[in-house]
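thought: fold this chain, then report.
action: predict
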Amino acid sequence: MLRAAALLLVLFAASPAWADNASSPERVSIRGDYELGRFEQALARARERLSLRDLPEPEQLELNQLAGLSAFNLGQQADAERHLAAVLRIDPDHALDPFQVPPPAIQLFERLRKELAPTLDTLRYEKKLRAERIQREAEAQAAAEAEASRKEAEDRATAAARRAMEGRNFLVNFVPFGAGQFQQGRNRAGMAFAATEVALGAASAFGYWRYASLFTTRTVTLDNRQAPGERYTLTERGIPADRAAEADAWRWLQLGAGAAFYAAWAAGAVDAVLHHGEAPPPVSVHLLPLSGGAAAGLTARF
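observation:
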C-alpha cells in the first residue's frame, strides 16, 4: 500500500525539481521514463549512461537520483542506497524535493546522509578547497588579463602619441592665437594665448579707430600774394589742438597693445617650439584660426 502511494506521487509529479534547460536528449528521455512509471527501463538506461566517462556533475547527480528512486520503487534496496549515496558524494548538501519524492524515499536518503556524515564532511571540505582554488585561479587570470589589457592600452597610447608627434607641423608653432598649443593638445595654454592675443589685438584696433576718429577736415580761404586781389581755398586735415591729449592717449593704446600682441605671439611661438616633442594628453581639442573663421576638432587616445 505504501509503495502504491509512492508510485502515485511519482506518476503525477508535474515537473521534477532536478529538471533544467541544459539536459541532453538522452537524459530527458530517461527522466521521461521515470515520470511515466517505467522504473525498470529508467534504471537500466541511467546505469548505462552512468558508465560513460566525463559526464558533467549535474548530469551524474540527476542520473544517480533517477536510478536510486527507480530502484527504490522497484524494491531494490541495495541499488537504491548505492545510487542515492552517489548523489550525496557528488553534492553532500543535496536535498530531495518533498513535493516530488515520497516520504519513505526521503527518509532513506536522510538516513544515508547521517551514515555517511564523516565522508560527507571530508567531501565538503575538499569541495570548498577546490572552489577556493578555482576562485584564486580565476582571479589570477582576471588580473593577468587586466594587466595585459593595460599594457596593450599603454602600447596603443604610446604608438598614438608617437604618430601624433610625427604628424605635427612645425610651422604651426609660429601661427598666433595658440595654434601650436592646440596642435599639441595643450588646450588650456592654447586658450590662454588665444584669449590674450585676441584681447590685445582688439585693444590695438580700438585705439587705432578712436585715434582716427579724432581727425577733422577744415577749409581755409587765403589771399594770393602773387596775384593781389585774388583768393584761394585750402583744405586741411588734422586733429584739433584741444583734442591733442586725447589723441596721444589713443595712439599710445594702439601702439602699446600692438607691441604687447606681438610679444604674446612670440611667447606662444617659443612655448610651442619647446613643447613640440612632448606626448599629447589623452583627450585634446584643437582650435586653429582660418581666414574668415576657425576650425575645431577633438582628438582622443586609447
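thought: worth noting. The first strand starts at residue 216 and ends at 223.
final: C-alpha cells above.
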